[in-house]
Amino acid sequence: MIPPENQWCKDLKKSIERGDINQCSFAFSTKKDEFKTDEEGGIHRTILDGKLYDVSIVTYPAYEETLVVVRSKVEKFKEENEENDRPKKITDISKKLEKFLEERRKKNGKQ
Fold first, then answer.
1. Under DSSP, is residue 5 helix (H, G, I), strand (E, B) or coil?
2. What residues does each domain of the chain span?
3. 99-111, pLDDT tens digit by residue?
4. Residue 27: in which H helix or E strand, if any?
């Protein structure tokens, strides 16, 4: 997604590049989920079906595991962390977000 050339988008991009804002939050509802306990007693929730309402770039996220980067930095991040699963997760999230946004544009008649 390429943001519009307006001032608040430019300011947001600069804030992300500096690291001032580097995470995101999601608004969603769950239709089906499951909970599992790991070996250390931690509880893990997997959402199997649900509806995504909003994705917001924030400073203080609901989920600390999130990450926001300016697209041109994604490749550099992947190179620096090739052995880590996080770049794959970023790519997967990016693809899902792009699909969601495309579906929303189609629904609203904007292609």
1. coil
2. 7-107
3. 777 777 787 775 4
4. strand 23-37
